[in-house]
Design a protein that fits this description.
Layout lengths: L9 E6 L9 E10 L6 E5 L6 E4 L5 E3 L6 E5 L2 E9 L5 H4 L13 H5 L3 H9 L4 H12 L8 H15 L6 H8 L3 H12 L3 H18 L6 H7 L5 H12 L3 H8 L1
Antiparallel strand pairs: 1-2, 2-7, 3-6, 4-5, 4-7
Helix pairs in contact: 8-10
Keywords: DNA-binding, Transcription, Transcription regulation
Pfam families: DUF6597, HTH_18
InterPro entries: AraC_XylS_family_regulators, DUF6597, Homeodomain-like_sf, HTH_AraC
Length: 255
């Protein structure tokens, strides 16, 4: 969200996984920056329902979905490489509840049998982005699990949520996909790490932020009603819990 400011401070690339890995991985992402002789830049990251394998000096680990916006300081000159798994796509590698990764990163060594410092050295020794991807894929491929149809089902559900910004209730989702509510909640806890209720809220707030990015005139009351909120105050509370700012504060940053 609100990448206009960041584009002046860093470069973001997204690369597609090889066909045999695309069942589990959404994309690879690479962030580069050079702020030599400049002030550090605080880049805000909006939460999403995906596990990420992050390769960064001193921080390399596997991170579960976050539930709140967080900030990451960029300073000096650097690079971060990330593997963004599809929602549910990391679970087949570990076969344990992904909810356990919330605020509790997992060691890359425990999953892929490589020391994090060695991984950092090996990835950043590559001078071209496609070579970074190739190296990571060589690391992941021997650990590739069998395909799990639940991953496909979960992504169908999340795609449906993202296409229906006025969707407000988990019960409506259960009716549409003909699945028991408690079964769906357990599935999301086990595979995704966050609840379907939270994914619905995230999709609505992301839609609100995107709408705000594209407009200079804002009617928060109408927007909250369009997104299915019964009152504006509830919408503002949810917006701030995920974006970290009120809609007014966020809108001022986009001007």
């Amino acid at each position: 969200m609100n990448l206009q400011q960041g584009e002046q401070k860093f470069q973001l690339s997204r690369l597609t996984p090889s066909e045999d890995l695309a069942y589990f991985i959404r994309h690879y992402w690479i962030v580069r920056w050079d702020l030599t002789d400049q002030e550090p830049y605080l880049q805000h990251v909006i939460p999403n329902p995906c596990v990420n394998l992050l390769v960064e000096p001193g921080r390399t680990a596997i991170y579960g979905p976050g539930k709140e916006k967080y900030g990451h300081y960029l300073q000096g000159k650097g690079c971060v490489f990330g593997v963004k798994f599809k929602p549910g796509g990391f679970h087949p590698f570990v076969r344990q509840p992904i909810s356990g990764l919330l605020n509790n990163p997992m060691s890359v060594q425990s999953v892929f049998d490589i020391d994090p410092r060695r991984l950092e050295n090996d990835v950043f020794a590559q001078k071209e982005e496609h070579l970074m991807v190739s190296h990571i894929e060589q690391l992941i491929r021997p650990k590739l699990p069998e395909q799990d149809e639940q991953v496909v089902f979960i992504n169908r559900i999340i795609d449906h949520i993202n296409q229906k910004p006025d969707l407000t209730k988990v019960d409506t989702l259960c009716d549409y996909f003909n699945v028991n509510k408690r079964t769906l909640q357990r599935m999301f806890d086990y595979y995704v790490g966050v609840s379907p209720k939270w994914v619905i809220k995230l999709a609505r707030i992301q839609n609100a932020a995107e709408t705000t990015d594209l407009s200079r005139r804002h009617n928060w009351s109408k927007l909250s009603m369009d997104l299915g909120y019964h009152d504006q105050s509830h919408f503002i509370k949810d917006f701030k819990s995920i974006i970290g700012q009120t809609p007014d504060e966020y809108a001022r940053l986009t001007l």
